[in-house]
TrEMBL record:
Quaternary structure (record): Core component of at least two putative endosomal tethering complexes, the homotypic fusion and vacuole protein sorting (HOPS) complex and the class C core vacuole/endosome tethering (CORVET) complex. Their common core is composed of the class C Vps proteins VPS11, VPS16, VPS18 and VPS33A, which in HOPS further associates with VPS39 and VPS41 and in CORVET with VPS8 and TGFBRAP1. Interacts with RAB5C. Interacts with STX17, MON1B. Associates with adapter protein complex 3 (AP-3) and clathrin:AP-3 complexes.
InterPro entries, per database record: VPS16, Vps16_C, Vps16_C_sf, Vps16_N
A GO CC term assigned to this protein in UniProt: early endosome
Domain (Vps16 N-terminal) ranges: 4-302
Membrane topology note: Peripheral membrane protein
Domain Vps16 C-terminal: 373-691
Species of provenance: Canis lupus familiaris
Name of this chain's protein: Vacuolar protein sorting-associated protein 16 homolog
Similarity annotation: Belongs to the VPS16 family.
């Protein structure tokens, strides 16, 4: 029996372990690993080594070598490093090696040492240099986080689609944090860092102080932290020798272990035991390795019994004892500690012998950002006790604007509610407050409140455009916004008025407003529209038919189609329609009427300002080749070939193209030659080309 247990060693009082070699690495390292930057790819991928000659105690003039090995130590690549000092190495999800230099430039290499590309982490990183870096993996790709010499963080969640984010500043941070890591929460990358006994969580918008649930007292510094590969769990090593393990959301504690070693570990990483749900953290010192697990609780209590016990303790205001029981049983915070703290806070606001400032400060210091605690509920309790100012102070700690605003409205603090709604960026919330203010304030005070809140004013204008047009006009009048008043009266002239006289009057008001706004172009255009409306009404009275609300061009076309060419020409002169445009209108109208005789007379009335190719095109559009041929002969030389092809005269088009010696025209004609019908023409073109090449 001894032979089976001889190589097992005791671990604690009730466990044993043994160590044996699975396989030996094939590499022949010339350097100590402690003197190298090392990066191992996930899922048994390659290992990169770069000796670090830039360390002050190891300064040397010898250039380092970047070496890449397989997971079993087989050499894959080796290259002399000729670039700048490297701070960190890491592998992307695509097994590309990221080499982060001190100047913020990141060089990317393939598995076999082939250089792929490089990119920069920005000018700020370049100016302040890189102190530390982390390569991390998310569902979007592989990301990179940088700590600069200015003690600021820059982050990109996906180096494949580089978008740099400068993270918020940590208040009072004068030196590098004792430890930091990246977390991924709700599809967003965050930075968690330790400064003395304090922890801060950075996202793209804010820096928030966080507390670890159930952390043993007496911690003055965090020395190491590690996040699991799935980013679901987090471990921290404190200067008291405790290892805290919990979820990366910082909402749940899994376990806490006293390892009785206060020296900072060299490494700390998460692992999981095969075929087991138990999670563990491996902690390494210079000559010691420790595995700390969070074995599942073996004792379970009926939830009803625990809740009854806690309710009775809360009722007796034995809050510390209730919290200790929750922590001992590791109850979810929402059911345990958070609920008890909320009860305590609601009791605290009833202590009227303490000032509002002191009560609000005490509650915030105790609760912080404890999940499951609603500051709005506590504020509502304070308001119910007649402490309105305390309620307002407590609402300042409520992160959800949707919870702040309803209570502020209930407390008749509507203007403050409007400010909070605007800060939230929730337009529905802003509209809710605006409608409340409209009913609460008189018209003048309401408008004055809007003037002080540009976003609210803009949203209310959008509302009025669909619901209250007269109110919109009053808003423009109050602001002396003559440009918008002019546009308002133009819309009103078409939407509200049916009589020509009323519409013209509204347009005149719009023109006056445009003049006041010094928009002469809009004013003149409005006056032209008034003239056109009056003329269209007169045309309807004299000629019948429908003219009102037609555009100027359509009015001219309608007159031509009705046989009133003289009136159409007079209208064109009155409104200064360019001659070319009038010819196009008349040409199109006569062709639509198929009045070919009148069209021919029109073409001969004077030299066409648009040429004669449009006549050919319009006639062919009406499938009248006979008329089109009349105008093809009048087309100028530069468009003659195109005109002849339109009427189907390929042979003559070829003669003209040959005469012009124009290669583009020859190719165009050749493209229209089909089959045996145009074979002779095609041969003629080819002969002409051959003769041109000989010359």
């Amino acid at each position: 029996m001894d032979c089976y247990t001889a190589n097992w060693n005791p671990l604690g009082d009730s466990a044993f372990y043994r160590k044996y070699e699975l396989y030996s690495m094939d590499w022949d390292l010339k350097e100590e690993l402690r003197d190298c930057l090392v990066a191992a790819a996930p899922y048994g991928g390659p290992i990169a080594l770069l000796r670090n000659p830039w360390r002050k105690e190891k300064a040397t003039s010898i250039r380092p070598v970047l070496e890449i090995y397989s997971a079993s130590g087989l050499p894959l690549a080796s290259l002399l490093w000729k670039s700048g000092p490297v701070v960190s190495l890491g592998w992307s999800a695509e097994e590309e090696l990221l080499c982060v230099q001190e100047d913020g430039v990141v060089l990317v290499y393939g598995l076999h040492g082939d250089f792929r590309r490089h990119f920069s982490m920005g000018n700020e990183v370049l100016q302040n240099r890189v102190l530390d870096a982390r390569i991390f993996h998310t569902e979007f790709g592989s990301g990179l986080a940088i700590l600069t010499g200015a003690h600021r963080f820059t982050l990109s969640a996906n180096v494949g689609d580089l978008k740099l984010r400068r993270m918020p500043e940590v208040p009072g941070l004068q030196s590098a944090p004792s430890c930091w890591t990246t977390l991924c929460q709700d599809r967003v990358a965050h930075i968690l860092l330790a400064v003395g006994p304090d922890l801060y969580l950075l996202d793209h918008a804010a820096c928030s102080a966080v507390t670890l649930p159930g952390l043993a007292p007496g911690v003055s510094s965090f020395l190491q932290m590690a996040v699991s590969f799935t980013y679901r769990h987090l471990a921290l090593f404190t200067d008291t020798g405790y290892i805290w393990m919990g979820t990366s959301s910082l909402k749940e504690k899994l376990c806490e272990f006293n390892c009785n070693i206060r020296a900072p570990p060299k490494q700390m990483v998460w692992c999981s035991r095969p075929r087991s749900k138990e999670r563990a953290v491996v902690v390494a010192w210079e000559r010691r390795l420790m595995v700390v697990g969070d074995a599942p609780e073996s004792i379970q209590y009926k939830q009803l019994t625990i809740q009854v016990l806690l309710d009775r303790l809360v009722l007796r205001r034995l809050y510390p004892l209730a919290i200790q029981i929750c922590e001992y049983l590791r109850l979810p915070e929402v059911q345990g500690v958070s609920r008890i703290l909320a009860h305590w806070a609601c009791y605290k606001v009833q202590q009227k012998d303490v000032s509002d400032e002191d009560v609000a400060r005490a509650i915030n210091q105790k609760l912080g950002d404890t999940p499951g605690v609603s500051y709005s509920d506590i504020a509502a309790r304070a308001y119910g006790c007649g402490r309105t100012e305390l309620a307002i102070k407590l609402l300042e700690y409520e992160p959800r604007s949707g919870e702040q605003v309803p209570l502020l409205l209930k407390m008749k603090r509507s203007k403050l509610a409007l400010s909070k709604a605007i800060e939230s960026g929730d337009t529905d919330l802003v509209f809710t407050v605006l409608l409340h203010l409209k009913n609460e304030l008189n018209r003048g005070d309401f408008f004055m409140t809007l003037r002080n809140q540009p976003m609210a004013l803009s949203l209310y204008r959008q509302f009025c455009k669909h619901q209250e047009l007269e109110t919109l006009k009053d808003l423009y009048n109050q602001d002396d916004n003559h440009q918008e008043l002019g546009s308002f009266h133009i819309r009103a002239s078409y939407a509200a008025e049916e009589r020509i006289e009323g519409r013209v009057a509204a347009l005149q008001t719009a023109a006056d407003a445009f003049y006041k706004a010094k928009n002469e172009f809009a004013a003149k255009a409005t006056e032209d529209q008034m003239r056109l409306l009056r003329l269209q009404r007169r045309l309807e009275d004299e000629l019948g038919g429908h003219f009102v609300d037609l555009s100027l061009h359509d009015t001219v076309t309608t007159l031509i189609l009705g046989g009133h060419s003289k009136r159409a020409e007079q209208l064109a002169r009155d409104f200064r329609i360019p001659d070319k445009r009038l010819w196009w209108l008349k040409l199109t109208a006569l062709a639509d009427l198929e009045d070919w005789e009148e069209l021919e007379k029109f073409s001969k009335s004077k030299k066409s300002p648009i040429g004669y190719l449009p006549f050919v095109e319009i006639c062919m559009k009406q499938h009248n080749k006979y008329e089109a041929k009349k105008y093809a002969s009048r087309v100028g030389p530069e468009q003659k070939v195109k005109a002849l092809l339109l009427v189907g005269d390929v042979a003559q088009a070829a003669d003209v193209a040959i005469e012009h010696r124009n290669e583009a025209e020859l190719s165009l004609v050749l493209s229209h030659c089909t089959g045996a019908t145009d074979g002779a023409t095609a041969d003629k073109i080819q002969r002409a080309r051959a003769q041109a090449q000989k010359k």
